[in-house]
Each structure stands twice: as structure tokens, then as C-alpha cells.
Design brief:
The complex is a heterodimer. By secondary structure, chain A is of the alpha/beta class. Chain A is built from five helices and four strands. Helix content of chain B is 49%, strand content 6%. In chain B, the strands form two sheets. Chain B has a five-stranded parallel β-sheet. In chain B, 49% of the residues are buried. Classes of the chains: A alpha/beta, B alpha/beta.
């Protein structure tokens, strides 16, 4: 679970991290203010299956494609990227086109994220 | 009829014959709520001690004798975007339309003490507020605006001293001395560690910078509010109402102690302290929170810190409705949510109010959405009649019992924080953050288990929500800002900038007031990022241990 950029809204990231952990998954939370480079580096170091990015600052169109690209550059394109936050509807297809697996908007029940990950990453739990 | 039974017993008997709804009868913060409140709930209630009259100790009923009968609360909406030049045009428009006070929203890099060309800035320059790198941007921001004739509120915390210095120097260049400047900077660094997470230095040196600003402003800026002590962000991070109340007031007391430690008399600076609260969706709990806040502040300021000036005792506050209560599903429903929250703030006696726009769970607000938000306040003020009498809910068995309960919970938190050694020590221990994370997780569980309902989120499936026109940020501002910054760094006297940055480091090392060398550095066009980085070399950086 990652917070990229300068946005300090971490309630959602923490709630999702807790829910995934309670569902039996191993969760590493990066903490705040990470660059896409730092997130990808941590992902490779920790050999994570998926990166969940929480973003509420409006910088999603800059930062998320950057993470996907960096994964490719590091031969780690099999790592799933999903995200949540204040993301306008019309950006969702663009993000998916850029390689983001799923986009969760405000109000999504945590069990949806859990179910999605179980489906998309069968090894997760 | 059985005449031996009391009316209350008969009521209880009658009531028990019909089952209650299967619902959570507690406030959203978990305070259990009884079906009925009666005089028995206020047995030792002493009117003069608990409430008093408006404008009189302990100020439970309001800080002014006449409250809204004299003057309505101030509609204060927060705005800022793009480059300084764009925001300057918006400011001039607002002034032409009669707004006397400006409120500046800064972009994320500025809030974090970074320049627009920092590797952490891409995508965030000018998107959530105006981008400020150097004095040049502040000069552009106020170009053609008489800085001696307006009041400015700047929502800035960790690098607040740099922005204050820029404001002072830009005004001096217009011929306006610091003594004449009116306004506020948020500058509440403690709640950054607790909730909003926009920090630069560790808590201890941050409190030193706070003291330097407080001393500078007390000496040179009699019309400036050095801090707006904020519960808003604590609540948005998922706290309960009682936690918001307790952590905000304990932060306030920590600033009072910092001022006293810096050698100031409490009555020299306490009259200029102001507060900023959230107004959430649980109506009565919010009203109780505002009333308890005033009573606690007055009591502790008088009894513990020996304040004598009446103005040191009365808590003035700004309120914003709860952003976190807005839903992305069927966003027009947020107009109703915001209206209820605004009403609670007004019944709680706020001095000014920001109502959120209905589209803010999706993006920055569109102009139409902002207009509706402002109209909501005007309807409350002019149509509903709630401003006709002062503190209309006083004496309600329920509201008074709830006010007492929130007060009790706040004092219990003060005790726990004291036991940890104080606010800074509690932050270093992660106490407030753990409490908030627990409360937020509990609320989420209650919602997901269906014990609490949010319309269109976990009850009543949402209808289509796609047709809301959203504000879109452009990346144009980023290109322009980064280009201007590069040109500035080529044009200015870089040796002078270096000397100024060295002077700042020296002040940090030797414990001198950092405001004076900061003012000289901004005058030489040193940037926000350069000044903060120089100070970090002495003070270090902060990294939190995240509490899940």
C-alpha cells in the first residue's frame, strides 16, 4: 500500500491496509510522501505482488502512469497496480489504458478491494 | 390508571411495549444516547457556572454579548489555484465584489516547503492551490492590491515563517509596514504530525520556529494572528468529536506554554489565538462539541495559565463542514449534508464558516457548486430564523448532557497526554495517531457491518451520478512556474542568497530568532525550498512511524 506525491490524506490507505491484513494478506505500507521511484524500488525489494496506490491530490494522471512505466523499466510489469481516491469518472478508462488494474472511488466497501485482489492475485491469500 | 406510579414510570412502561428500531443509538463518535433526557440528567446543573451569559465567562453561550443579533457569521470560502498571476486576478475580482478578506490556498509543494522544480512536485504545482516559490510570486499575488487595506488568511503551516516573511517584505515594498498588516496564518504544526502530515522538521525544532514567529508577531505585528489552532484536519483523519475537541485544545495549550516559555506574558498573545473546527454530520454532537470547547478554553486559560484579559479567555473559531462526509455517489445529496452541518456550526456559535461544495468528493469544486455552497449559508442566515436568538439550544436536557459528556471526555484525554509528558511527547509516542486510527477503523467496521448508514453508500443503491461538471486542473501552471523559477535563479544575486542561507543556519544553530534572517533571505529572493532545506540541515527532517 503506497502514498505517492505530497498528499497527506492517509485515512483511506490505512483502512484498506488494515482490511487486507485482516483478510490474511501480507501488507507493507510505505508511509507518506513517496516518489514513484521509491514505491517501485520498495515493491521490487519486498517482492510484492501488487501495489495499491491511494491518491487524493488530483495528481493521479501524472503519478500512476509513472509507476506503471517504472515497473516495466525494471522488468516487473507482472506487478498489479490498483488505486483509490478522489478520481473523476472520466479518468478511470484513461488510467486503465495506462495499465492500472482497477480504480476504486470514495465510498467503496473494503470487501470489494479484498475480493478484487483475491481474484486478480490468487497467490495473495 | 395506576396512580401510585410516577409519570416517568408510566412512560417507561408504555415505551417498553413497543420494540425499538434495529439501529445504532449512539453518536457517530460512539457516545450512547438515551431515548429521552429529563431534568434528572442535569441534577447539579448550575446555570451561572456552566453557561453564564453570552460574552461572559465561561462563554458556553457564545463569545459576544449580541452574537448573530449584532452581526451574522462571516461567509469565508477558501480559494487558490494555478500561478500567482491567476490567483491575483481572482483576488481582484473578489475585492471588486465587496470581499474585504482574502484567503490563500497554497499548492502541495509550497505547503511542504518544496519548490516547483523539486522531484516530489510533478503533477502538484498549482493544482490544489497557488504555487509560491519566491518573493517574486508573493509580489505578483498582491500586485495592485493595497496590502495595508485588506486582511489575508494564509493556510500554511510547516513553512509558515517563510510565507510570513514574504508577506512582510512584499508589503514593505508597497510602503506598508508590518505594524499595519492584518491577517492570520494557520501555522498549527502540531496537528500536522497528528493528522494532516504536512511537516518539514521534527516536532521540537518546529515548536522553536513557532516561538520565533509568535515573538516576532507579538513585537511587530499587533494585527496578525500567528496561529489558527485546527481540529478540522484531525477530524478529517477519522477522529471522533471528543478526540477533535481534546487534541485541538491540548495543542492550543501547548502553544500557550510555548509563548510563556519564550518569555511572553500570556495576555500579550492569547487574545490573538483563534481556532478552526470541523462540523460533521452528527448534528447534536457537533453543537455540544462547540459549546464544550468554549467552556474548556475559558476555564483552563483562567485557572491554569492565569490569563486575566477577557480576550484571552474567549475562544473565537472558524468552522468548515466535513469534507469526509461527502459521497462520490449521487453527489447532489451532499448539498443536504452540508446544509445540516452548516446549521450545527451556526447553532454552535461559529464566527465564520466555509461550506463545502457538493462535488468535492470528486475534484476541486466547480464555480456552480461553490455558488450553491455560499447560498446554503445565506439561506441559513436569512431564511431559517436560526440567527434570531442566541444559543437557542441552551437548557435542552439532551444538549447540555452531551456538552458535559464531551467536556468530560476531553479532560480525560488531557490527563492521558499529561501522563505521557505533554503534547510533543505524546506525538513522538504516536498516541494521538493511534487513537485516531482506532476510531477511524471502528467507524469503518460499523459502516460495513450495516450498523451505520450512509445514504447511497451502504443503503439505497445510487442512481446514475455521471453528469456532474467537474473543475479540471491544468498542467500549464507547472510549466510556467518551473520556467519562472529557473529564470529567477539566473537573474538574482546568488552569492547574496548563499550568505542569507548561512545566516539562517547560524540562527537555527545558536537559538536566535529565525524570523529576522528569513526576512533578509526572502528579500534576496531565496526560495521556500532553499530556506527550508537550509534549516533542515540543522534541524533534521521528520519521518513518521505509520500506525495502521
Amino acid at each position: 500500500m503506497a502514498k505517492v506525491g505530497l498528499d497527506g490524506h492517509d485515512r483511506g490507505a490505512k483502512i484498506i491496509a488494515r482490511a487486507l491484513r485482516d483478510a490474511g494478506m501480507e501488507v507493507i505500507y510505505t508511509g507518506l510522501h513517496q516518489t514513484p521511484e521509491q514505491v517501485v524500488e520498495a515493491t521490487i525489494q519486498e517482492d510484492a505482488d501488487a501495489i495499491g496506490v491511494s491518491i487524493l491530490s488530483g495528481a493521479h494522471m501524472t503519478l500512476l502512469p509513472r509507476i506503471v512505466d517504472l515497473l516495466k523499466e525494471n522488468d516487473a510489469e507482472d506487478v498489479l497496480v490498483f488505486c483509490g481516491g478522489t478520481i473523476p469518472k472520466e479518468d478511470i478508462p484513461k488510467l486503465k489504458e495506462a495499465g492500472v488494474g482497477e480504480v476504486f472511488t470514495p465510498g467503496t466497501p473494503t470487501k470489494k478491494a479484498v475480493e478484487y485482489l483475491r481474484r486478480a492475485v490468487p497467490s495473495a491469500s | 390508571m395506576d396512580t401510585k406510579k410516577t409519570a416517568k414510570e408510566r412512560w417507561e412502561e408504555a415505551r417498553s411495549k413497543t420494540p425499538e428500531r434495529d439501529a445504532e443509538f449512539s453518536t457517530m463518535s460512539g457516545v450512547p444516547i438515551k431515548p429521552l433526557y429529563t431534568p434528572e440528567d442535569l441534577e447539579d446543573f448550575d446555570y451561572d457556572e456552566k453557561l453564564g451569559y453570552p460574552g461572559q465567562y465561561p462563554y458556553t453561550r457564545g463569545v459576544y454579548p449580541n452574537m448573530y443579533r449584532g452581526r451574522l457569521w462571516t461567509v469565508r470560502q477558501f480559494a487558490g489555484f494555478g500561478t500567482a498571476r491567476e490567483t491575483n486576478r481572482r483576488f481582484k475580482y473578489l475585492i471588486e465584489h465587496g470581499q474585504g478578506g482574502l484567503s490563500v490556498a497554497f499548492d502541495m509543494p509550497t505547503l511542504m516547503g518544496l519548490d516547483s522544480d523539486s522531484p516530489l512536485s510533478p503533477g502538484e504545482v498549482g493544482t490544489e492551490g497557488v504555487a509560491i516559490d519566491s518573493l517574486e510570486d508573493v509580489e505578483k499575488l498582491f500586485e495592485g492590491i493595497d496590502m495595508g487595506a485588506i486582511s489575508t488568511s494564509m493556510t500554511i503551516n510547516a513553512p509558515a515563517h517563510v510565507l510570513l516573511a514574504m508577506y512582510v517584505v512584499a508589503a514593505q515594498k508597497q510602503g506598508v509596514p508590518p505594524e499595519k498588516l492584518a491577517g492570520t496564518n494557520q501555522n498549527d504544526i502540531l496537528k500536522e504530525y497528528i493528522a494532516q502530515k504536512e511537516w518539514i522538521f521534527p516536532p521540537e525544532p518546529s515548536m522553536q520556529v513557532f516561538k520565533d514567529m509568535l515573538v516576532y508577531a507579538t513585537e511587530h505585528m499587533p494585527r496578525w494572528n500567528t496561529v489558527s489552532i485546527s481540529g478540522y484536519h484531525i477530524r478529517e483523519a477519522g477522529s471522533t468529536a471528543a478526540q477533535e475537541l481534546a487534541f485541538t485544545l491540548s495543542d492550543g495549550f501547548a502553544y500557550v506554554e510555548a509563548g510563556i516559555e519564550a518569555g511572553l506574558d500570556v495576555d500579550d498573545f492569547a487574545p490573538r489565538l483563534s481556532f478552526f473546527f470541523n462540523s460533521h454530520i452528527d448534528f447534536f454532537e457537533e453543537i455540544a462539541k462547540f459549546r464544550a470547547a468554549r467552556r474548556i478554553w475559558a476555564t483552563v486559560m483562567r485557572e491554569k495559565y492565569g490569563a486575566k484579559d477577557e480576550k484571552s479567555l474567549l475562544m473565537r473559531f472558524h468552522t468548515q463542514t466535513a469534507g469526509v462526509s461527502l459521497t462520490a455517489q449521487e453527489p447532489y445529496n451532499n448539498i443536504a449534508r452540508t446544509a445540516f452541518e452548516a446549521l450545527a456550526a451556526v447553532l454552535g456559535g461559529t464566527q465564520s464558516l466555509h461550506t463545502n461544495s457538493f462535488d468535492e468528493a470528486l475534484a476541486l469544486p466547480s464555480e456552480q457548486a461553490v455558488r450553491i455552497a455560499v447560498r446554503t449559508q445565506q439561506i441559513a442566515a436569512l431564511e431559517t430564523g436560526v440567527a434570531n436568538t442566541i444559543d437557542p439550544l441552551a437548557g435542552s436536557y439532551f444538549v447540555e448532557a452531551l456538552t458535559d459528556e464531551l467536556e468530560r471526555q476531553a479532560y480525560e484525554y488531557f490527563r492521558q497526554i499529561d501522563e505521557l509528558g505533554g503534547v510533543v511527547e505524546a506525538i513522538e509516542d504516536g498516541f494521538q495517531m493511534r487513537e485516531i486510527a482506532e476510531a477511524s477503523a471502528r467507524y469503518q467496521r460499523e459502516m460495513e457491518s450495516g450498523r451505520r448508514h450512509i445514504v447511497n453508500v451502504n443503503i439505497y443503491e445510487p442512481k446514475d451520478e455521471s453528469d456532474v461538471e467537474l473543475h479540471r486542473a491544468s498542467l500549464e501552471a507547472e510549466r510556467e512556474q518551473v520556467g519562472n523559477l529557473k529564470a529567477l535563479k539566473e537573474r538574482r544575486d546568488n552569492e547574496q542568497v548563499e550568505r542569507c542561507l548561512e545566516a539562517i543556519k547560524k540562527a537555527c544553530r545558536e537559538g536566535e530568532n529565525v524570523m529576522y534572517p528569513t526576512i533578509e533571505a526572502v528579500r534576496a529572493y531565496a526560495t521556500v525550498g532553499e530556506i527550508c532545506k537550509a534549516m533542515q540541515e540543522v534541524y533534521g527532517s521528520y519521518r513518521e512511524t505509520p500506525w495502521l
